[in-house]
Each structure stands twice: as structure tokens, then as C-alpha cells.
Amino acid sequence: MFKLVKRLTSVVAMFAVLFTFTTETMAAKKSKTLKNTQKKGFVRCGVSQGLPGFSNADAAGNWTGVDVDVCRAVAAAVLGDASKVKFTPLSAKERFTALTSNEIDILSRNTTWTLSRDADIGLTFVGVNFYDGQGFMVRKNSGISSVNDFKAGVSACTNLGTTTELNMRDFFNSKGIKYEPVTFEKADEVVAAYDAGRCDTYTTDKSGLAAQRIKLSNPDDHMVLPETISKEPLGPVVRQGDSVWEDIVRWSLNTMIEAEEYGVTSANADMMKTSDNPAVKRLVGAEGELGAALGLDNEWSLRIIKQVGNYGESYKRNIADTGILPDRGPNQLWTKGGILYVPPAR
Amino acid sequence: MNFKKILPQLLTLVVVILVFGFFSYNAQVNMENRGITFGYGFLSQESSFDVQFSLIEYDGSHSYFRAYLVGLLNTILVSVIGIIFATIIGVVVGIARLSSNYLIERTAAIYVEFFRNIPLLLQIFFWYFAALRALPLPEKAEPMFGVFFLTIKGFFVPAFVWNNLDIFIYSVIAAIIATIFVRIYAKKKQENHGIQTPVLSISIGLLIILPLLSFFLGGVDATVEIPVIEQLSQTSFTYKGGLKLPPELISLALALSLYTATFIAECVRAGVQGVSKGQKEAAASIGLTPNQVLKLVVMPQALRIIIPPTTNQYLNLTKNSSLAAAIAYPDLVLVFAGTALMQTGRAIEIVSITMLTYLTLSITISIFMNWYNKKIAIKEK
What we know:
- The complex is a heterodimer.
- Chain A contains 13 helices and 14 strands.
- By secondary structure, chain A is α/β, with parallel strands linked by helices.
- Chain A folds into two domains: about 200 residues, Periplasmic binding protein-like II (D-Maltodextrin-Binding Protein, domain 2, 3-Layer(aba) Sandwich); about 100 residues, 3-Layer(aba) Sandwich (D-Maltodextrin-Binding Protein, domain 2).
- Chain A is globular.
- In chain B, the strands form three sheets. A three-stranded antiparallel β-sheet of chain B has the order 1-2-7.
- In chain B, strand 1 and strand 2 form a beta hairpin.
- In chain B, helix 7 packs across helix 9.
- The longest helix of chain B has about 35 residues.
């Protein structure tokens, strides 16, 4: 009899657990991410496993990079403190599942915006923080100076589960070259295999090539071919179905770019409150009620600029000064010959 | 009284159903909320990615289902190679551990302790990157016997180009059937007249002569295609023609067999030690030769102890082959649960198919080993 009672209690306990889970799911409303983030006190951000310039952790575990800065900007806007971010390093394979299964709230991991990803698998891309394209790295002494020099039998190392794999096939097929794709799950293994001579070429986004080249044993023996074989607009991603959160992330990124356009920097942001230009005043929250539309206070954008800086500062700090890609190329403001053009904050 | 007995089971059943129901309901609700659709229709879509190494004809214009087959066959290939080598090394090391020669016994013991106590993933990385560092570039490779080239880009071996391959295969099948008949006949003769027939030599002879005859009479013809070095650019080379085994396959098979062999060696040692000494002495006392003692008395009894735990090791090896993704060997996990999953985003569908596939593979191995175990078990009369 005692045994029976014991079993019954355990069964009842299980039901209780099940019931709480179920009510939790039932109560899940459309826009919970913001509420959850404020409750937790930190932004959950998915980043790469180490790509210098974009998202890379130093020995002390401090993350830096332009992708990291997007998450920091959101933390500054939502929580008032750019350091309140929990970073989760993800492989290319894990990244979308981590986002759709609620492990993270922003995926800011040099992810290419494509139609199928945007429409098919429950994700929403909110913008572009880096315009990239796929390229090839080869050994300088190989005599290959253009993608037209590749011959049948060439072996190409790359990352698993990326748009790179598909572009590579399109490219070699269009040239009628039979090639050998060698795909690894982690970037570090790709670099090691290419470095050892397993592959004739290493192909990925050009920014990635520039960043990974530093990790090779003799970076100067290698070069990136001039051609770009694809469009790779990289940007942050959020889960589908939470439009408030989507707007917050989108406008946090836009704020950084717009701040550069109007010359607002982390150093002069406070002074800009008294600017003569109404657009600048709106941008730093001295005029208008833009924060309320996002469910935030009116200083949200000022905090982003003060704590993280504008896009130009972030680019300089992470990509230019580290020697990865000193030339901003297309990632320059539209007013200066680039293609960075964001809708106005008003 | 009866009801009290059934009640716990009934409740457990209800809870199990509820748990499964809850999880599938939860998955459905959440997928709907996030706009994820569910379905297996993607399997017939064009995969549009290529794979490095495939046993069947495949490129990106084939379907995702064909990519699945490519991955599955590669998994089976590395598992079969691994199982064969693990068994050979395991048996040799297991017997060496019983040797009365101190040096042999110690060497075997050190091997076992060393390889079974290091995580397998580390061993795979070690063999792969050690191989990559140690192997020569294609243009610097020293040919073995003039036709084998072991290089960083793979192991290039000569390939056979066949004419009338089907006739050759028929002749091999005929030879196998003939040896089975010889064995049945020899057993009958032994039981009825007590005369032993040299079955082994006859079988080997049959297996050589019949396929050879097909060359002379059946019009079978095989020419050897030797790999030839080819220049891709000023400093990069590869081999053309022949057969290419990628370094990923070699290092994965090596790591898997060296690791699993340690466990099989222990199974073998346990099995042989499990046969009581009196059995051997009794067999010797009725005048059996040492060879006959091993073959007719010790091994049949030892195998009964060896087979069940060895089955576990075969299953482990097959499942461990999924670590291939770390070193770019295109197995089921890398091709299907990796690239295909990423390109389609269909995590639930693809992971469920992959799990079912491994389950089927494991159960198939289990069924075969159980059948073999039953066959050699003591038959009570």
C-alpha cells in the first residue's frame, strides 16, 4: 500500500510539472522577447566561434567585433547597459536552430540574407551590417592570379552548411570545372587543413578570408584573388513573429549607421542634443517621441551612440585598425560612395 | 486486488502517452507560431551542393534523397572497414595479452590502456592532422611498388577497368556455392566414415580457379589504370586516373579501428580465459593436436563469451563514425544532418530521418550478431 501511495505521488508530481509547462506555452504571447530580456537583465546573442573583426573573444572572454556591437547596441537601447549581453558561440550548423528554439534572441553571426532563409525557416533578417562577397584565397607561389586559372581537379576547403557551398558549386559548374569540395564544421579546421596543403584554395566570404588569413602559419604566403563570385549581405537575424523585437534590433543597427551619417559620435553625442539640425536632435532623443513607438524610453538611441559608437567607429575599431580590411569598400556611407543607406529615423 | 496490480502500469502508460502527446503538440504549436512548415517533400528537391567522395554517382543536380544515400553509403563504408580492421587488430592483441612472452604481453597491454583511455574525437583529430602534416604533397610522393601514391590529398591506387564484369561476379558466386557444398559433403563423410577432408585447401582452390577460368573462357578482361600526376598550377599537383581514397576516410577508419580494437582485445582475452583449463587438458588427453584443441574445444566455447560484448563494440564503432563531421569525411551526419539540414532548415525532419537510420543500422548489426551468437550457442540435446 505504501508503495502505491509513493507511486501515485510521483505521478501527480509529474502531472504538475507537465501542467506548468503547458500553461507557460499557452500564455506565450506574440511579443515576449522584449519582456523576457528586461526580466532576465541581459540580451541573449548568438555569435560566431571566432571570426576576428566580426565576433571574436579575447583570452579574458571579452567579445569584440562589428557583429558583437549590434547586440551591444540592442542591450544599450533595451537595458541601458551595452555590457549586459550573454554571447553564445555557434557553428554555422547550429545557428538557426538556436534562434528558432529560443536559445538566443538575436543571431548576429556574419549570416547571409537569402530568400529561402528569410521566408522558409521561421527567421526574419532585419538589415545588413556588412556587405560582403565570396572570394578565393590561394598560395602566392601557385601562379594562380585569377579565378580563371583554376583547373579541373582543384580541391577547395570551406565551411559546412553555408551559402559558400552552394556558390562554389554554381561558380565551378559555370566554368565547367570538376572540383573537390572539402567541408569542415568549424572554421579553425578549415584553416588548419588549407594551411597543411590539403586544399589548393580556401573559399568563403572575403571578409572572412581576410580575417582567417591572420591565423595561417605564414600569412604573407597567401593572397585573396580579386574576383568576387557572389553577393553576401550579412546581417542580424531574429525569430519570426515578434515584430516589436524585430523593430528594436533593426533600428538599433540603423541608429548606428545614421549617427555616422550625421557625424554623431560617442564623444560628441551629448552635445548634439542642442544641435540646430532637427534630424540630429531626433536621433539623440532631444526631440520627438521615437522611443515610445518601440516600447522604449527616449534616450535609447543616445545610449547606443554613447556606449557603442556609430557604425564608422565600430568599423574602425574592429575591422580597419586590426588590419583585416582597412578599405571600407561598399561598406561606406551612400554619401561617400558606398552603399550604406538606411531609412530615416523620424 | 487485481485492479491494484494494474493501476500503476495503467498510470505509467497514460503518463507516457501524455508526455509524447505534449511534446508533439508543443512542437506543432511552436513551429506554427514561428512559421515553420513540416514535410518530407524537400527530399525530392535538387540538392545543389556537391560532395567530396561518393560511392554512387552524385552531384548537386541530384535530389536531397540521393545526398542522403551518399552519406549513408559513406557511413556504412567507414563502419565496415573499421569493423574488419578492429576485429583483426583486436583478436591479435587479445591473444597477445595472453602470451607467456613478457615483452609481447606488456606491449599489448600498454596499447590497450593507451588507446582506450583517450577520447575518440581527440584521436581522430590527431590522426587526421598528424597525417596531413606528415604526408607529402602530391609532387613529392614516393610511389609504393610504382603504382600507389600516398599523399596529403589522398591515397591514389590503381583501378581496374573491367570488361564483362558480370560474368566474373557470377563465377565468384558459383565458387562460393561450390565451397558450401564441399563443406556439407565433408561433414557428412566425417560423421558417417570418420574421415577428414581438407576443406580449407579445396575451398581456397575453388575460389581461385573458378574466377580465373572466367578470364580464359568467359571473355572477362581487366586492365589496370595507374594514377598519373597532373599539374593544376605552378605549385599545386594532383593525380588523375585510378582510385582515390581521401585522407579523411583513411584517418577516420584508422582512429575508429585502433580505438575499438582495444575493447575487442579485452573481449577476446576474457573469452579465452573464460574456458576452464580442464577442458584443454581433457582434450589433449584424448589425443587431439594443439591445433585441434584450439579449433574444436577452446574457440567454440570462447566465442560464446566473446560475441555478445563484441556486438556492442561493433555498434559503438558504427555510431562513433558520426564524429566524421569534425574532419570533413562526408558521412551521413556531415552530408545529411549537416549540409542538407543547413540548406533546407528542416531540422526536425532531417534529424528524425538520421536517428531512424542509425537505429536501423544498429538493429541490423544486432540481428546479425544475435543470429551468429545463437548459431554457436550450446545446443542442448
